[in-house]
Amino acid sequence: MAAPAEPGHSPGFKKPPALLRLKRKRPVRRSDPAAAAAEATAAPAPRGSGAARRRNPFSSLDNAPRRAAAAPQPPAAAPAGGDPSAAPFWQFLEPACEEKPPGRAEPAESSDILALSQDLHSPLAVPKAPSSPRQEFPADWSIKTRVLFMSSQPFTWAEHLKGQEEAQGVAQHCRAAETSLPRSVQEPRLCTELRCAFQQSLLYWLHPSLPWLPLFPRLGADRSMAGKACPWAQDEALQQVLMSDWSVSFTSLYQLLRARLCPYFYVCSAQFSVLFRAAGLAGSAEPTAAIAPTTRGLRHAMRAEGIEFSLPLLEESGARKQKNSEESLETEMAEGLIRGSRVEDAGEPAPSDDDDDGNFSWLEEMGVQGKVKKPDTISIQLRKEKHEVQVDHRPESLVLVRGSNTFRLLNFLISCRSLVAVAGPQAGLPPTLLSPVAFRGGTLQTLKARTVSGRARVPGGFEDVFSLEVLGPVLPHALHALTLLLGPAQRGSFRALLSPHEPSAAFNTRPGPPQEDEQQDLPAYGLHPKTLDQLRQCPTLGKSSLRLLEMKDYSYTWKA
């Protein structure tokens, strides 16, 4: 005879006991405060509620969990219905990181514009921009990984290019042909010149060409290259062939630069990036090369090869600190806020690390030469160079090479062992060369562009919002060429969100003091005359780069 079932027990353990199901608490709705208060009163008090809660001994101050009340609230929360238009506007201003989490999904074409559109009309989402609009925006020498153009006018003219239009755009690029457009295009979709010029602005030259590998960016790109086929990683003979071919292409680009046939080009390695600029650009009368980021070891190797260079950001910071210290000292002395002893010390030269020549005779005078351990030569050298070591891998470590030293830099980079990684996914892979003009061994590439349309919330209802997304290494001339096309096509009104490659933002540093006698005749370099006029101006962005660019009534405002 089977035993009678106990109350609250499910035979066969196939279902949870009914007693547990009854004890489950039903979720309390936020709209019913009375029910929430009643359940909170009926709930049993936690054990040891009178005593302070024990701290987790395995948590540190940085990773300790914050209370919900102290957690910062996001500026714009998504509505309950899951409307993507409530997404924060600033999430699209963050740089396109090379090492994206593998679980991140790309937004759908039908909905990603909705996440951008609501903040177009929100005054809180508009960054601070120059108060007076200008006819031209400053030159930006950083490489953009993503550019998103938005407008109330459709971008139908930029999609589904015909084969003849693509061929014409390639021919115009190779022949350095200039396209002149009216101030406003009435029917952009039917304008063949506009569509061909758009194809022309998307072209650039690359070396080496390995279609299965992402060759830009190279800094921090190990995760994106992991698991890809790299037959040269364990084959030294193949590595030598790749480097030999790369050296020929690199030398060809430099010769084009010196002959004033190439305006600029980039060398992107796994450790640093180099920007070579021709004479007459960026306010310099001679060729320049900027390297960022750098390390003390790289700078020491360059000095050993006789390459003269400067650290403009570090020198500017040091001059600013010295000026501020002198001003503060004069103020203190004038107001009598320091004691007489300090005033006497102020007239004496400050102790400098450079005066330390390693002479420790003063220890013998004190009679403690055998009791104090003398520092070794390496420690003394590191002490002298402590300020230089602190800027390694930072924008302040930007190195600027001018004039004939750029040729020494060319030879140094060709023979530099640290230019190519010896381990990891990028082992044995030569640096990436990016150029706006053709060169020996270069491959013609096209930036990826797509159009997205959607509807956005506005105070009065909904409105149509359109966007054009451009992905890839967007070079400085390509960004300006695209803006020249969007002005007439979008009737002088659009907004652009820019995602720069962060290490290249330091290239916006001024290469030297402004020079007045630099309005010399420059070759076209295969660029539009307005683009050339912009690139010849002295950089003004410092170590920052453009994040937001807006045109309204054919005038620009921007945010850096």
Describe this structure in words.
The protein is built from 16 helices and 14 strands. The chain is an alpha+beta fold. Among the domains are: 131-204 and 445-514 and 521-559, no CATH class; 207-223 and 231-314 and 392-444, no CATH class. It has an 8-stranded antiparallel sheet. Strands 10-11-1-12-13-14 form a 6-stranded antiparallel sheet. The protein is globular, with a radius of gyration of 31 Å. The termini are far apart.
Report the mean per-residue pLDDT as an integer. 77
Placed side by side, the strands forming the largest sheet appear as 6-7-5-4-3-8-2-9
How much is the radius of gyration in Å? Answer: 31 Å
DSSP strand count: 14
| Helicity, as a percent range | 25-40%
How would the global form be characterised?
A: globular
Individual helix count: 16
Biggest beta-sheet profile: 8 strands, antiparallel
**H/E order of the elements?**
HHHEHHEHHEEEHEHHHHHEHEEEEHEHEE
Helix/strand class = alpha+beta
Q: Unreliable stretches, pLDDT < 50, 5 or more residues?
A: 60-65, 67-129, 341-357
| Termini gap | 84 Å
Residues in β-strands, percent: 15-25%
Provide a concise account of the structure shown.
The protein has 560 residues and is α+β, with helices and mostly antiparallel strands. It has 16 helices and 14 strands. The strands form two sheets. The protein has an eight-stranded antiparallel sheet. It has a six-stranded antiparallel sheet with strand order 10-11-1-12-13-14.
